[in-house]
Amino acid sequence: MSFTVKKMLQLALLALLLATPITLTYMNIRCDNLSKDIALALNRNLTSLSTAVLELPENQTDAKSMNDLVTLVLSSRSLRSVAYFKNDHYLYSDRDASLNGSISSSLKARLKTEPLPLLYRKCSTLNKIEEVHLVVKGKSGFYQLFMNARYMDDWITNADEYLRGYVVSPDGSAIINKKQDFLFYKSYRSVQFPFTVIVGAKTSQVLLGICSLTAFIIILCMIIGLIANHIHTKNFSFRKDIDIAIKNKEFIAYYQPIVCNKTHHIVGSELLCRWLYRHKKLVAPNQFITKVELNGQIKPITLQLLKQLAVDKPIIAGKNPDFYVSVNFTLSMLSDPVFVNDVMCLIKQSPSLQHGLVFEMTERENTANAIIKLDKIMQRFRELGVRWALDDFGTGYSSLSSLKELNFDIIKIDRLFVNSADTDAVTSSILNNIALLGKELKCRLIAEGVETETQLNKLKSLDVDYTQGFYFSTPINREAFEEYKYQHEQKMLVANKKKQQCYSALKYHGPALDI
Prior knowledge:
Blueprint: H1 5-54, H2 63-75, E1 79-86, E2 89-93, H3 105-113, E3 118-123, E4 130-137, E5 142-148, H4 149-157, E6 164-168, E7 174-176, E8 184-189, E9 196-201, H5 203-247, E10 251-260, E11 266-277, E12 281-283, H6 289-295, H7 298-317, E13 324-329, H8 331-334, H9 337-349, E14 357-361, H10 371-382, E15 386-393, H11 400-405, E16 410-413, H12 415-419, H13 425-440, E17 444-447, H14 453-461, E18 466-467, H15 478-507
Parallel strand pairs: 11-13, 13-14, 14-15, 15-16, 16-17, 17-18
Antiparallel strand pairs: 1-2, 1-5, 3-4, 4-5, 6-7, 6-9, 8-9, 10-11, 10-18, 11-12
């Protein structure tokens, strides 16, 4: 994926169109929530301070009361000082236990014209420090709280990265922070105290938010594009590698023997695909089988393997006319009429494939909706001498309906049941039921994944016809299979010869030999 100038401009425009409404919507919601949060926090703080000072005595304070007052001031970040006045004269403060000064004329005017409590901003006449004053009514006098305006300004300023806010009195004069011009804003009016919180966004802040989100969307889209391109390139490279492998005939047939549980002879084998990458390195099946099944490349691979089988089968079968080889097929493969026709043509052209050939229907797909069509296809192959096996029975999409509607010749029991049949009672019971079902349907039973003699004996006790697994052999190439089959038959001859000798010895009833 190449990022040209034109594509980048288009991406930037798209990101801007997305970022603008998202930013405006977010900021509006954030303004509303933040104004409420600030108002509620300010309410809590003012209520807490008011409650604390109203507990102080209104007459001359004692040492304990003065200590409590000083502690209150020192423990609060926003509170600078507290004073009590009555009849327009201060009586005491946290700094002086005895006062006799008059309150300011402006405060007198406010007490006459404005409802209590009072909340306003004023510059101190003594040290020219900006303060926020809160005046609350006591029983007979008034408590005046002097709060740090700069601290409260910073508190609201730092409440959000992009948004700004201020607090005004009912007449519109600023209490906390200076008034600002906003592109849009939200306000929240306190019920307990005379103030309104206004939170908004300036044009510069809105533009900064839009630009930041636009940049984020562009970067995110580029990352997603690169990841998608990597996946696409990887998949394309995989398909290309498979195409080259098919052309170079890198897919080879491996065979795993299938053994009769009664005679112990090798009666057949399953053809399994192996990828000899560039004719040098074997690739594990789990690294490519599922992928080629999904992208459809399994079809030409299977055709190539069937062509190999046409040559290999007479060799690995030897003198056994009943020897068979099974090949895996999926529903999607059989649903392709072109592929089905190619397979049929190959069978007609290859005498060795016209007998002793079994197609295993794998159960990775649901066959419920394709029963009728599938039955017709299976019947067409039967007319060419092909038998059918239901693979991995008991897992995936396998069901009794598949067995009932489709006339399978063989049932292959999944290794899942074989592996734990000798240790798990429930699995053993299921395996027993599968064996009984196979007999009722007059299907041959093959157990996959047999790895131990205990498992083999368990299957024999259930009258399972054939077994397949690492206990006998791993999947091997044709030459190795020929050798294994020969050695296996030689062992069988020796074993049978010993049995015959033992049988003859048991039948001898003459006089004891004089040694």
